[in-house]
Backbone:
């Protein structure tokens, strides 16, 4: 068979919610790097006779994330027991939601290259996590610190058409989680985990064929790699007339960059789901939804649109600036500091007329210069020493010709290393441009006298000698003369 095939991709994602305590007990929900089995209690260890108490803030974070993903919140949702036996699950069941989840029917618009793609989301529900298995030197260890921590599980519809789109969706999801503060969503640390479902079908065929599930992918690269590998592998089967007849589960071999068969056929009723008898149905009032909606901050995709329209930024710069909420906030703080400084320096021009120019300069200094320094130094943007006020002032000094751009670079480096005030440093290092009209005028007069030959050539039409005159002035002042003023003085005197 040689029909054209299309990939059908769906994702199941687990996001660890950043609550203070675990989902059903008061143990703290801490990071992984503390002593194993130090944050446990009879509830999260599944001792008989204990009862779960639902953590309201896990619900709130779930609702927040669901709203950001355009999901509809179910006013009533129900917890169920998913029964299975495994050493990392002391209760013998996970408390999750199946038929009546927290939310349903959402979507996220992502940008795959120049295309806008809508990823349909089937549902987001909340559940608790299992403990963590560690296998080393022929024995297995279990750390129960993670047991009972809250998760949001997000299930997309099989609506994703490429490995790249799947990766972009996940990266956008990570960004949203971080903006909202619902999760650190770090794949390497396991607080964002992803299973992918891949199947193929002939173009034009509406059927869904049995899918392959690749479990526990822990990097964006492995998600993209596993999907690409599956598309390739399944294409070969289809082209050899081997149409998949049962669902299979495969694992990702990071070293070999291939998927490996783990098991076939696995059905939901293997888990003997039933309603959790120890928890009431979860009721979420309209007031609560409205409250969470009204507290919602601007999301990355909304910020992107606003930056493009409000600041007339090109899409690439806007994307770079919304990379995190901190960077976006910094950019806007620098703009407002910059505006105050240029006013202070006597620039009374209408902001509307100079805005586009100024914003482009500011975004350039942040996206190329600051990001470069941050990357080279190994620090984080959040920890770097240049305050928005100092940055706004430095760029204003540059814009108003108080300093030239090479002085700007020197000042930037120093601000990055020590957090110094730009004006103070410029004075100390004698970096301020000479803008005193009287001083510049006598300089220009002297140069005209010293360069008789060039002056007469200029007067007879060789106008590109202006560059030469300005160059001499810059040389004589070691680059400190205000070049705009110098050029104007030469023009006035030589015309
Ligand atoms: Zn506990
Ligand atoms: Mn799950």
Residues:
């Amino acid at each position: 068979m040689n029909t054209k095939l299309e990939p059908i991709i769906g994702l199941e994602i687990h996001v660890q919610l950043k609550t203070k305590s675990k989902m059903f007990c008061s143990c703290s929900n801490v990071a992984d790097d503390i002593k194993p089995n130090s944050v446990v209690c009879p509830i999260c260890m599944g001792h008989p006779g204990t009862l779960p108490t639902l953590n309201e803030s896990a619900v709130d974070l779930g609702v927040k994330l669901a709203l950001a993903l355009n999901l509809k919140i179910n006013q009533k949702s129900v917890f169920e027991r998913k029964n299975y036996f495994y050493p990392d699950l002391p209760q013998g069941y996970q408390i999750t939601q199946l038929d009546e989840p927290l939310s349903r029917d959402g979507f996220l618009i992502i940008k795959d290259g120049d295309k806008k793609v809508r990823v349909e989301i089937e549902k987001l529900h909340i559940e608790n996590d299992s403990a963590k298995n560690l296998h080393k030197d022929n024995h297995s260890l279990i750390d129960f610190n993670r047991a009972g921590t809250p998760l949001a599980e997000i299930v997309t519809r099989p609506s994703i058409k490429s490995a790249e789109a799947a990766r972009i969706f996940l990266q956008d999801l990570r960004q949203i989680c971080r903006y909202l503060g619902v999760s650190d969503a770090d794949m390497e640390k396991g607080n964002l985990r992803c299973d992918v479902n891949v199947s193929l079908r002939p173009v034009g065929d509406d059927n869904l064929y049995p899918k392959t599930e690749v479990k526990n992918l822990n990097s964006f690269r492995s998600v993209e790699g596993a999907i690409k590998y599956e598309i390739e592998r399944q294409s070969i089967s289809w082209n050899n007339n081997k149409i998949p007849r049962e669902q299979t589960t495969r694992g990702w071999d990071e070293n070999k960059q291939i998927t490996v068969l783990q098991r076939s056929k696995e059905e939901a009723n293997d888990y003997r789901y039933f309603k959790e008898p120890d928890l009431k149905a979860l009721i979420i009032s309209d007031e609560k939804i409205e409250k969470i909606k009204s507290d919602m901050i601007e999301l990355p995709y909304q910020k992107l649109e606003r930056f493009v329209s409000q600041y007339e930024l090109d899409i690439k710069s806007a994307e770079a600036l919304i990379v995190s909420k901190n960077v976006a906030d910094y950019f806007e703080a620098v703009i407002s500091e910059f505006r105050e400084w240029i006013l202070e320096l006597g620039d009374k021009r209408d902001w509307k007329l100079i805005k586009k120019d100024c914003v482009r300069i500011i975004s350039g200094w942040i996206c190329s210069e600051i990001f470069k320094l941050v990357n080279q130094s190994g620090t984080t943007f959040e920890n770097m020493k240049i305050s928005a006020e100092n940055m706004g002032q430095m760029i204003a000094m540059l814009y108003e010709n108080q300093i030239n751009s090479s002085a700007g670079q020197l000042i930037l480096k120093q601000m990055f290393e020590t957090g110094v005030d730009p004006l103070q440093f410029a004075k100390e290092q004698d970096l301020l441009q000479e803008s005193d009209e009287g001083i510049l005028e006598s300089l220009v007069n002297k140069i005209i006298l010293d360069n008789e030959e060039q002056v007469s050539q200029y007067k007879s039409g060789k106008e590109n000698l202006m560059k030469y005159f300005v160059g001499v002035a810059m040389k004589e002042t070691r680059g400190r003369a205000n070049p705009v003023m110098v050029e104007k003085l030469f023009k006035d005197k030589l015309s």
Observations:
- The first helix runs from residue 56 to 68.
- Residues 14, 96, 127, 153 surround manganese (II) ion (ligand 2) (CB under 6 Å).
- The radius of gyration is 31 Å.
